Amino acid sequence: MILEKIQKPNDIQKIPLDEFPALASEIRRFLVEHLSETGGHLSSNLGAVELTMALHNVFHLPEDKIIWDVGHQAYTHKILTGRKDEFSTLRQLGGLSGFPKRSESPCDSFDTGHSSTSISAGTGYVRARDLKGESYYVISVIGDGALTGGMAYEAMNNAAELDKNFIIVLNDNKMSISPNVGGISRYLSSLRTAEVYTGLKLSVRKNLKKVPGLGESMVEAVHKTKSVIKELLIPGMLFENMGLTYLGPVDGHDTRQMMKLLNEAKRVEGPVILHVLTQKGRGYGPAMRHPDRFHGTAPFRIATGTPRKKSEKPSYTDVFSAAVCKLGQEDCRIAAITAAMPLGTGLNGFAQRFPQRFFDVGIAEAHAVTFAAGLALGGLIPVVAVYSSFLQRAFDQILHDVCMQNIHVVFAIDRAGLVGSDGETHHGCFDLGYLSMMPNMTVMAPKNRWELADMLEFAVSCPGPAAVRYPRGEACEELEEYRRPIEMGKAEWLVRGRGLALLPMGSMVADGKRVQEALETENVCPSLVNMRFAKPLDLECLDELAQDHHTLVTMEENVLSGGLGQSVRGYMSQRYPQIQVISFGIPDEFVGHGSVDQLKKQIHLDVESMVSAIKEQMDR
After folding, report:
1. Fewer CB under 10 Å: which end of the chain, C or N?
2. 295, 292, 348, 296: which is closest to 320 by C-alpha?
3. Has residue 228 got a pLDDT over 50?
């Protein structure tokens, strides 16, 4: 196998170019075989194989810096930098990360996981390089989906001021996770048909320079008038009008052509953008037919592409999807918004049933929130469905544009808490804290599938901003016997005991019930209260608990700093300083990747650890 010859960075430069097609096939086969066992981001990586090979053949790592936007497409980069033998541990506890990670290899120049960041980071690298008088190349790879994020344009605007080389590779596969939307998508479509421009530009420049004595001056004259040609051949020429030299488009599966243009890009003084056309899922039939399904996939059967394990139980996303469609049927004012993730957030069903009230704004969470505020002021009831980790990108818009004006926008926050194998960049463990600090915001979390549907209906009906957070994966079907109406800021008593009270919230309620049952076997009879609301906090419930309990135990799948436990402790310390508060949650650190159960055990948020810690505290 050719792939066996690559054991460390830059080994690919020893491989003859005529063996590159076979090497690309081996890499694709390697990715499909390994990801069928571990799961991971498949379709984006299959599409970027030749692009990565070209980059590694033209540049020298780790001296040159390749920055991958998001990082979904960096698996081939990991293979070519000596991490092939670790792929059986991909996204497993203690194993290889699914994203670029500086602590993993000096060839990973920037830790990523969120979109539209690579040009900003690359611009910073270039400025630092030039200030220090160094001479390495900086290459930012960004997808066309990430160009729907405003940060990319802020960065390009800033990069246009550079007078030294900076290479931006636009990996254009017509998709983010789902097909791209909006003006930039239409603009790139026009560029894909304009290959004549690049060929003309490069060939004219090359031939003019051969003219003795007059060549350079003729090139300069053409340079001054080339905007006329550009406007004729490529309407708009957004990138060059911003001050970036544009090369392309080029076939992203033709390694020789890409290497030719990358070497051309190296000679440009200033920022240059190379437009590369790739096919998401290339080389594996199921991923080519359904690239969105194989964006992030669980282990699957290679022959069919079907999951190895398929749960018969609905996920929380499924429950939300059904609930928001029901509400949309009942009230024509309800609209739904996603930031490029209709399938991931469960809004694809709403989009099919109510297309006029469904809005995919692209990878633009900040815009999504302020857009929702405008919809609400116009008389609609917008539901913004978003992963917790990505909602962080719209903090200012939630605070200023929604909460400050007390506008009725509903936030359906998926993947709240620990999400598992995607690790630090995707855990949704901060939203309870930053949302609870915002005036006018209501923050709640359901204990099971039925409570999610009830909370969504409540959020739609109550005035002002409201957030419902729920975890990834199968929806809890425990505690079905407890289904009491949702009342603003009211907790739900599940078990009345004495002395010790357990106060879990959301995904931790089922675990709280197991802790309660385990403690009962130790002759402890704790109360169990489903807190339901992080804000407003049920102070009447806390006052009632203070009458016959000496210890309160909060449980949340959120960072402890600023979370439910801190709110409870703050109130109790002021009103009832004699009562002890124990808080279980995510510690003040970034938690790595692994299964949710493994990570909970690692941070002592599993049932056994909590029971042990409570007993130890009570013994003291």
Report:
1. C
2. 348
3. no
Q: What is the mean pLDDT of the chain?
A: 91
Specify the pLDDT at position 271.
96
Distance (Å, rounded) from C-alpha 611 to C-alpha 620? 14
The CA–CA distances, whole Å, from 313 to 310, 317, 449, 482 equal 9, 11, 10, 19
369: how many CB neighbours lie within 10 A of its CB? 29
List 338's β-bridge partners, or say none: 360
In a 3-state reduction of DSSP, which class is residue 22? helix
| Beta strands at 442-444 and 533-535: parallel, antiparallel or unpaired | antiparallel
For residue 526, the model assigns a pLDDT of: 97
Q: In what order do the strands lie in the sheet with 492-495?
A: 492-495, 527-530, 499-504, 549-559, 580-586
Q: Verify whether residue 365 is a known catalytic residue.
A: yes
CA dist 440 and 399 (Å) reads: 10
590-608 pLDDT tens trace: 999 999 999 999 999 999 9
Residue type, position 540, single letter? E
Q: Give the angle 407-360-406 at the CA atoms, nearest 5°.
A: 5
DSSP of 367-394, one letter per residue?
Answer: HHHHHHHHHHHTT-EEEEEEEHHHHGGG
Q: Active site residue: 28, 174, 393, 469, which one?
A: 393
The label of the residue with tokens 């009632």 reads 544
Considering 78, 91, 280, 469, which one is annotated as catalytic?
280
Concerning whether 393 is annotated as a catalytic residue, the answer is: yes
Percentage of the chain lying above the pLDDT 70 cut: 90
Q: What is the distance between the alpha carbons of residues 308 and 62, in angstroms, rounded to a whole number?
A: 37
Q: Which one of 28, 101, 230, 365 is the catalytic residue?
A: 365
Residues 510 and 481: beta-carbon distance below 8 Å: no
Tens digit of pLDDT for each residue in 309-318?
A: 877 899 999 9
**Please, which residues bridge with residue 68 across strands?**
141
148-169: average pLDDT: 95
138-143 vs 166-172, strand pairing mode: parallel
Torsion of CA 333, 338, 339, 341, to 10 degrees: -170
Which residues are registered as beta bridge partners of 81? none
CA atoms within 13 A on the CB side of 298: 9
End-to-end CA distance of the chain: 63
